[in-house]
């Protein structure tokens, strides 16, 4: 068992003990929070401590030709976020029959990184608080934008 697995297992156990629904997966964990699932990955920092990465798939996709408007809107949204940021990731096209000239599609994701100097109870509580605030902040920012009058259009 690698050190990262041990740290991940300690984080998973602490989050489960705090009442969250956590499902270990290959190299991380999925945390059910309300109607969303946040992916959590942990790795030992070579300078000490643990780096925790959080990913929130928003099930939002944009086409390449919409990027200028979307990037401007995401930049404005990111300026108001404290616990994470919105990013775009290209979606792999699994259909080999597709035209190579087809526009690329991007998934909109919420991401956050938190460094824990140690896995003490206080730091694990800080992680839980960060995780909760990250999920709420990203979800609310996107919902406000999509349902507001000046929404992002994709």
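Sequence proposed for the structure above (154 residues):
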């Amino acid at each position: 068992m690698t050190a990262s697995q041990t740290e991940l297992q300690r984080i998973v156990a602490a989050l489960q003990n705090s009442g969250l629904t956590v499902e270990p997966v290959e190299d991380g964990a999925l945390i059910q929070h309300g109607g969303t699932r946040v992916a959590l990955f942990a790795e030992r920092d070579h300078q000490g401590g643990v780096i925790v990465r959080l990913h929130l798939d928003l099930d939002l996709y944009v086409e390449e030709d919409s990027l200028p408007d979307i990037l401007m809107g995401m930049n404005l949204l990111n300026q108001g976020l404290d616990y994470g940021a919105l990013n775009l990731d290209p979606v792999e096209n699994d259909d080999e029959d597709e035209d190579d000239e087809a526009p690329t599609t991007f998934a909109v994701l919420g991401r956050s990184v938190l460094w824990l100097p140690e896995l003490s109870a206080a730091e694990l509580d800080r992680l839980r608080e960060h995780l909760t605030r990250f999920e709420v902040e990203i979800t609310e920012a996107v919902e406000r934008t999509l349902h507001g009058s000046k929404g992002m259009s994709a």
